[in-house]
Task: inverse folding
């Protein structure tokens, strides 16, 4: 199994960080790269969405929404079983029910490199999956408590950076259509991989910082952060088959279900659920699950999708 | 030089709190404030500012002793339990008393 060069950038960042190298990218660059990636993903999805909008897609979107509710519930049950207290279990579950756009970008690059087609409206599913887990997580932690400021929380969730960029890109792409978007195409064609490579270099550096705090939490968290993506991927892949997605689409949905958020959810939960320990969730999602998914997981999920199809599912 | 005594309240806390804090300051009658990004280390470990949720901010407010104490009391009651936050008061001299 040969690693995609963009993933090697991640490994490079990880090693540089672990060796305590002086290498550091300016924070503004990371911001810029993630903005470009999210817009690119949105734009590409929007262009395709305009061509393929259908009632069937609406049904699929509803199933994906259901997935976004089911995953945090499952994660919560597993975490409680592992002995985590209720609030922290709910917070970590919210991260694992939601998605990572960075992981999505890597799976897109992987599919393109392998020449495997997938439903190009997938970015819509990224946006859909990002939200419900946060709400489920908060409800799991404290029920419908009065002191939750739902208005403020709603703003934080729906107007958060990643959702805005994804939806903005989707809508611009859908309005513009294939012809008009041509001059902007480099966003998701020739520019995509170089930007992703730099983004992953920074992610490697950040992930290495998170690994340091793993000692504090021990094997339970490590076990969860490695097993939960596998569970998630299986459920995502089965749903993909059920929805009649292509091979690529099934693998991408499995990857989405396997991924854990590290941007939108931590920001929202820090305000909505301050009792939860933020570094517990971030260590798991950023320090373990993200590296696992992009290095080992994605090829594995593609094999899973192939296997399911071979069994005629 | 005609100097007047005022209180400088400095708050160092998680960047995630910025929006909430600004609303609080407005309500509690702070005449003005200055916010800057910060990083460092304290009771809750290293705050490296390497990640969105890991950054700190430093808020500086120059006001009367009364208001400074009211703000500090509010912060302690509302945020100390669950957030990384410290605040301290100091006496400073200002030139234009009416501004603070």
Result:
């Amino acid at each position: 199994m040969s690693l995609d060069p963009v993933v090697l950038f991640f490994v490079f960042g990880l090693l540089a960080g672990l060796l305590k190298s002086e290498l550091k990218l300016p924070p503004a660059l990371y911001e810029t790269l993630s903005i470009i990636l999210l817009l690119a993903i949105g734009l590409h999805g929007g262009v395709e969405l305009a061509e393929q909008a259908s009632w069937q897609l609406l049904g699929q979107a509803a199933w994906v929404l259901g997935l976004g509710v089911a995953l945090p519930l499952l994660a919560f049950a597993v975490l409680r079983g592992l002995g985590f207290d209720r609030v922290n279990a709910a917070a970590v579950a919210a991260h694992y029910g939601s998605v990572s756009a960075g992981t999505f970008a890597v799976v897109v690059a992987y599919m393109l490199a392998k020449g495997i087609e997938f439903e190009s409206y997938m970015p819509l599913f990224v946006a859909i999956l990002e939200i419900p887990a946060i709400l489920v997580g908060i409800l799991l932690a404290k029920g419908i408590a009065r002191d939750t400021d739902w208005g403020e929380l709603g703003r934080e969730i729906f107007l958060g950076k990643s959702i805005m960029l994804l939806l903005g890109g989707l809508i611009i792409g859908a309005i513009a259509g294939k012809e008009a978007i041509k001059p902007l195409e480099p966003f998701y064609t020739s520019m995509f991989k170089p930007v992703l490579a730099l983004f992953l270099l920074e992610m490697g550096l950040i992930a290495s910082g998170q690994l340091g705090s793993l000692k504090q939490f021990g094997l339970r968290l490590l076990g969860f952060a490695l097993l939960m993506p596998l569970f998630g991927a299986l459920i995502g892949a089965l749903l993909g088959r059920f929805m009649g997605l292509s091979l690529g689409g099934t693998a991408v949905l499995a990857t989405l279900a396997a991924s854990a958020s590290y941007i939108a959810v931590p920001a929202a939960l820090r305000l909505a659920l301050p009792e939860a320990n933020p570094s517990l969730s971030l260590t798991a999602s950023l320090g373990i699950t993200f590296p696992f998914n992009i290095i080992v997981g994605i090829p594995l999920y593609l094999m899973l999708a192939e296997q399911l199809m071979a069994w005629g599912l | 030089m005609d100097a007047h005594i005022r209180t400088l309240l400095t708050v160092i806390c998680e960047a995630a709190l910025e929006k909430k804090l600004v609303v609080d300051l407005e309500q509690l009658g702070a005449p003005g404030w200055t916010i800057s990004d910060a990083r460092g280390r304290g009771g809750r470990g290293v705050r490296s500012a390497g990640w969105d949720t890991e950054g700190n901010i430093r808020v500086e407010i120059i006001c009367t002793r009364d208001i400074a104490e009211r703000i500090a009391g509010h912060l302690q009651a509302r945020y100390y339990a669950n957030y990384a936050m410290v605040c301290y008061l100091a006496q400073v001299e200002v030139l234009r008393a009416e501004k603070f």
